[in-house]
Amino acid sequence: MTLTVQFHSYFKELTGTSESTYEMAEGSTLGDLLNQVHQRFPKLKPMERSTLSAVGVEYQRPDYLLRTGDEISLFPPVQGG
Known about the structure:
The protein is of the alpha+beta class. It has a single domain (about 1-75), classed as Ubiquitin-like (UB roll). The protein has helices at about 10-15, 30-40, and strands at about 1-5, 20-25, 50-55, 60, 70-75.
């Protein structure tokens, strides 16, 4: 299945792109996809524990079962003052 990952905030700078596509096997989880993202963009790996991951408009856990056509968004941790 083909999935699109969108990068937000300074993740765009770290990856050099605003989105990337991935081919994943049926039955793959969000965690499986994130492993692929980290292989392609190793600069994101150090932030994996604090990265916010959404599928559509809902935040999801790594065990979320992906479906064809899902759009995944990755956000850095929110900072405020």
